[in-house]
Specification:
The protein is an alpha/beta fold and 346 residues long. The chain has 15 helices and 12 strands.
Length: 346
């Protein structure tokens, strides 16, 4: 017989042994939000779930159960085979730890495949994430990376992370670069997924002597960072990257790849076109239409993004520590920040 476990017990098991967590909800539910690193082996696909749900609401519970049993019976061999191919311990969950996960765990048990069932399902996990973030005690010594658009702040953080430094990549967690063009070419996460990934990263970094993250605005694409993080960002040590305009243009072209997403960038630009002086806006649009992306980016930086960043920098607290690095590219920025961090550790 299968064993029910709490979320706390599941997380303890994950620290002690290899255990695969499996979401048996429908593909759309899984895509919307799930436990980090879980797999999706759905008991019902989206259409089947809708059909059973309709019977449950409009006919009877019994009718829904009978149709659900009919659907599951037809796919049992493939369903069990998918679980049997997974090595090691397994834990399954659904929305509330109800019928779908119980059915899955029971069927697997009958086939001598042991699987834990998560009590409370995804709903219990989501409540835990919210509670943890609402009461999180942020004790890190922090360094916040600032710089005008195009200074490669995310690239810099990725380089620092690869070299072993504790980094919180907020844009990566959000699936968004933080600008009006930030979602293009990426999959933007919703608030539930962002919260889950953020909490997991914070917990993984808890023993670090310090943490590095970018000076984002409170809203990043579709998501909003927790209040404690927004407040700490303003009081942390500020590391400012200054880079020549042409270097920033080159960095943006490398990061955003406008030649691959031309129509999307033009559509996004038209959302902010009215905020830019009319002759300049017209010139930017002409450049985008003619594939003169470097010229368009330079004008956007000079007439839209740089003035916005100057205004936001004025809002910074005057009593926080501010360190400026004047560099020509991201590689130089990495060298400068690494040298600074080495000095701090002495």
């Amino acid at each position: 017989m299968f064993q029910d476990i709490s979320l706390e017990e599941l997380r303890l098991l994950q620290t002690r042994k290899q255990i695969t967590v499996i979401d048996v909800r429908s593909p759309s539910e899984y895509k919307d939000s799930t436990l980090p690193d879980s797999l999706n082996i759905p008991l019902f696909d989206d259409q089947e779930r809708a059909e059973v749900g309709t019977l449950y609401k409009q006919v009877s519970v019994q009718a829904a159960k009978e149709r659900g049993l009919e659907i599951v019976s037809a796919k049992l061999p493939a369903f069990i085979k998918a679980f049997g191919a997974i090595q090691g311990e397994k834990a399954v969950f659904c929305w509330r730890g109800g019928m779908r996960s119980r059915t899955t765990a029971t069927v697997l048990s009958l086939m001598d495949i042991h699987a834990y069932r998560l009590l409370g399902g995804y709903k219990a996990y989501r409540k835990w994430v919210i509670d943890e973030l609402e009461t999180y005690d942020f004790k890190f010594k922090s360094y916040v990376i600032h710089g005008n658009t195009g200074t490669g702040k995310t690239n810099l953080l990725n380089k620092l992370k690869k070299s072993g430094h504790p980094v919180l990549d907020l844009e990566g967690l959000a699936g968004h670069r933080g600008s009006i063009f930030g979602q293009i070419g990426l999959h933007a996460n919703n608030q539930r997924t962002f919260d889950s990934l953020l909490l997991e990263d914070l917990m993984a970094l808890e023993q670090s002597p310090y943490i590095l993250f970018e000076g984002e605005s409170k809203r990043i694409g579709k998501v909003v960072m927790p209040q404690f993080l927004a407040q700490h960002k303003d009081s942390a040590t500020q590391l400012w990257i200054e880079m020549p305009l042409q270097s920033r243009v080159n960095q943006i072209l490398e990061d955003y790849k406008p030649e691959q997403f031309k129509e999307e960038y033009i559509a996004a630009f038209r959302n902010i076109k009215s905020r830019i002086h009319i002759p300049v806006a017209a010139e930017i649009e002409r450049n985008l239409l003619a594939d003169r992306f470097a010229e368009a980016v330079a004008l956007l930086l000079e007439h839209y993004y740089d003035p916005k960043y100057v205004f936001s920098s004025i809002q910074q607290h005057e009593d926080v520590e501010k360190v400026v690095f004047k560099v020509n590219n991201v590689n130089e920025a990495e060298t400068a920040v690494l040298s600074f961090l080495a000095d701090q550790s002495e």
